[in-house]
Structure formats: C-alpha cells, structure tokens
C-alpha cells in the first residue's frame, strides 16, 4: 500500500489517497456492533488512523452501505463525532495535517423504501465529515426483470428514485452541496425484451440480458454494441442511455449522459463526482467526458 500512496503523491498535481473500509459485500452487523459500543468505536478509530498514517493515506472513507435501523444511524452520528475528535487530536499531537474523513452512502439521505424509513444524521455529517459520497446508481436491476429500466437516471418524473432526488435530499437533510460528491457507475444493467419491437425505457421484459447476472461493464457494453450492431439511444428526459439488439437491452451511461450529469453536479455546486469503477472504462472515454464537463471544456 505504501507504493500505491507514494505513486499518487508523485503525480503532478499530487493526488490524494483514501483508504476505504467496507463495501457492497461487507456484512452490516460488524459495523453495527462496532458503532454501537464505545470500546469498539475507540479501537476502530485508533486502528484506522494508525493504518492511514503508516501507509501514507491522506484520508479514510467509511463505506457502510446498509445501516439496519434508526439506532444504527444515531450511533453513526456518535461515531463520526468521535472519529473527527480523535483525528484532530492526533493531528495536533504530531504537528501534521489531519486525515480527511468521508463516507460512502445510500443514494438518498433517507432509506425511504424501507417499511420503517430511517434517516442519516445529516447534521453530524455536515459537522464532522469532509465529504459525503452518495452512490447514485443501482436504481433498477435484476430484482425486477419484468420491465427495462435506467439504473442511474438523473431525472424520474414517476418516482423519487433518481439522482436529482438523491442530491436534493442530502441538501435538505443539512449536508452542504459543496460536501457532496455524486457517484456514477461505469457499468450497466441488462434485460431480455419480450418483444424486440418494443424497446423503450420501461418496455416489457422477461429476465436479465447479457453479462454477469444482468450486469455489464462499460467496456463490455461498448464491445457488445459494436459486435451486435446495437441501436444506441440517449434519453434526454431521464439523462440516461440505453442500447438494444434483438431482444437484448442495456441501460447505462455513455459520454453524453455523463457530460450532462456532471454539468448538473457543477450547477448544483457539488464538491465533485466519482466513478465506480475506473477500471471498467473504455480507454478513459467516460472519465475524459466527465473531466471536460467539470472544467467547462464541453
């Protein structure tokens, strides 16, 4: 890990290196047990800061994607406060810049699809976290194989499951726009159309399409589209893209939708954007489109 951080720091301009703890496949209970107990919190906080310093990381990211209830959210507020306090003390004690703290979170500030909704501690995140990373994707997928869908659309007139709602919910919950970093996917979701002649967003489907469990990386999507002579459609109403070839249907982001989403993020005064994950791009196509849009070059 030391070589990784040294390589990033050697870039011109220098890049910041973050160590993320957790992830989509991390079980929720260990996080819940850690944050609900003061001794466990203290041990985790000390260990995370020690590891960050040992390997030259500039920041730490908590990627707890599935808090279970409102009690977990209350404990999360306490954790963020103690994490920041310990970070500040360590920085002053050794006379070095403090470690940046961030959190990868559900797309919206409230788990409003749960039977009993629970809400992130927006005030604590505003006070103690340097930035918040809403994961603005996976809105549609293999859990509903009856209709096609845009997995990371910016706008949805029929529901609150969209990136525009995501960002507005966090701001309303007290997190400043400049602390929000909008997540975008470098992969798409696939379906099998019931009728190849009915192929819009929301078209009837009868299962997942190509890819691994109905998921395809952007690199693979481009290759699939070329190999199959797919029709590619940019949908301006949702700011998303889809392609279809025969009964195969793929919802994803292409350079056009990425540019418009990044322009939206900039117009909203957000702190930035992130991708999951750069390794699945096609010759830096999406990354370049986003960078140019953020700089105002396109």
From TrEMBL:
It comes from the Eukaryota. Transmembrane segments: none annotated. One of its GO terms (molecular function) is chitin binding. SMART domains: Glyco_18. InterPro entries: Chitinase_II/V-like_cat, Chitinase_insertion_sf, GH, Glyco_hydro18_cat, Glyco_hydro_18_chit_AS, Glycosyl_Hydrlase_18. PROSITE patterns: GH18_1 (PS01095), GH18_2 (PS51910). Residues 1-297 form the GH18 domain. GO terms for biological process: carbohydrate metabolic process; chitin catabolic process. Keywords: Glycoprotein, Glycosidase, Hydrolase, Signal. GO terms for cellular component: extracellular region. Pfam families: Glyco_hydro_18. Belongs to the glycosyl hydrolase 18 family. Chitinase class V subfamily. This is GH18 domain-containing protein.
């Amino acid at each position: 890990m030391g070589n990784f951080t040294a390589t990033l720091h050697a870039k011109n301009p220098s890049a910041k290196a973050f160590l993320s703890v957790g992830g989509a496949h991390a079980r929720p209970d260990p996080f819940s047990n850690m944050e609900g107990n003061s001794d466990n919190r203290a041990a985790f906080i000390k260990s995370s800061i020690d590891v960050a310093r040992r390997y030259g990381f500039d920041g730490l990211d908590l990627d707890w994607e599935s808090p279970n209830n409102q009690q977990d959210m209350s404990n999360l507020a306490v954790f963020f406060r103690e994490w920041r306090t310990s970070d500040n003390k360590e920085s002053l004690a050794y006379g070095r810049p403090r470690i940046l703290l961030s959190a990868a979170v559900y797309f919206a500030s409230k788990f409003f699809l749960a039977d009993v909704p629970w809400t992130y501690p927006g005030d604590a995140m505003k006070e103690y976290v340097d930035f918040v990373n809403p994961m603005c994707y996976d809105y549609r997928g293999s859990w509903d194989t009856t209709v096609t869908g845009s997995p990371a659309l910016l706008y949805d007139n029929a529901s609150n499951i969209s990136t525009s709602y995501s960002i507005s919910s966090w701001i309303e919950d007290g997190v400043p726009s400049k602390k929000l970093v909008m997540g975008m996917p470098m992969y798409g979701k696939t379906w099998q159309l019931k009728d190849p002649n009915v192929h819009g967003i929301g078209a009837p489907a009868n299962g997942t399409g190509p890819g691994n469990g109905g998921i395809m990386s952007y690199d693979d999507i481009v290759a699939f589209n070329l190999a199959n002579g797919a029709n590619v459609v940019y949908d301006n109403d949702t700011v998303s893209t889809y392609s279809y070839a025969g009964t195969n249907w793929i919802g994803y982001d292409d350079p056009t939708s990425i540019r418009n989403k990044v322009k939206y993020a900039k117009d909203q005064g957000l702190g930035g954007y992130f991708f999951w994950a750069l390794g699945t791009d096609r010759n830096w196509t999406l990354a370049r489109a986003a960078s140019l849009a953020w700089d105002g070059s396109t």
